[in-house]
């Protein structure tokens, strides 16, 4: 192992300006998930969240997936 300090010349894309869009595209391309998911935050009533957690555990899934399925089914019924 070398004790040389890392210089800009050794860094990936050194000396080249990379746009935010290119950086974002490269980071998105590295993800291996076949689905496109967006992260969000929801404020839920404590009792409602407790019920979601219990149901998710009973069905062998997680609260996020349970909410995702429930919202999808709700929106499909609205169409």
* Total E-strand runs: 0
List the uncertain runs: none
Share of helical residues: 40-55%
Radius of gyration: 22 Å
Write down the overall mean pLDDT: 76
Largest sheet: none
Number of helices: 3
Gross geometry: elongated
Strand percentage lies at: under 5%
**What order do the SSEs take from the amino end to the carboxyl end, as H and E?**
HHH
N- to C-terminal distance: 61 Å
Structurally, the number of domains stands at 1
Based on secondary structure, the structural category is mainly alpha
Protein described:
The longest helix has 16 residues, at 63-78. The model has no long low-confidence stretch (mean pLDDT 76). This protein has one domain. With 79 residues, it is mostly helical. The chain has helices at residues 20-29, 46-59, 63-78.
Give the secondary structure arrangement, pairings included.
Blueprint: H1 20-29, H2 46-59, H3 63-78
Helix pairs in contact: 2-3
Short description:
This protein has helices spanning 20-29, 46-59, 63-78. The chain is mainly α and 79 residues long.
List keywords for this structure.
0% strand; 3 helices; mainly alpha; single chain; 79 residues; elongated; 51% helix
């Amino acid at each position: 192992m070398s004790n040389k300090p890392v210089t800009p010349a050794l860094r990936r894309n050194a000396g080249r300006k990379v746009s935010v869009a290119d950086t974002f595209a490269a980071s998105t391309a590295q993800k291996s998930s076949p689905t496109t998911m967006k992260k969000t935050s929801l404020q839920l009533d404590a009792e409602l969240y407790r019920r979601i957690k219990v149901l998710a555990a009973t069905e062998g899934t997680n609260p996020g997936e349970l909410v995702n399925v429930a919202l999808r089914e709700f929106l499909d019924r609205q169409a």
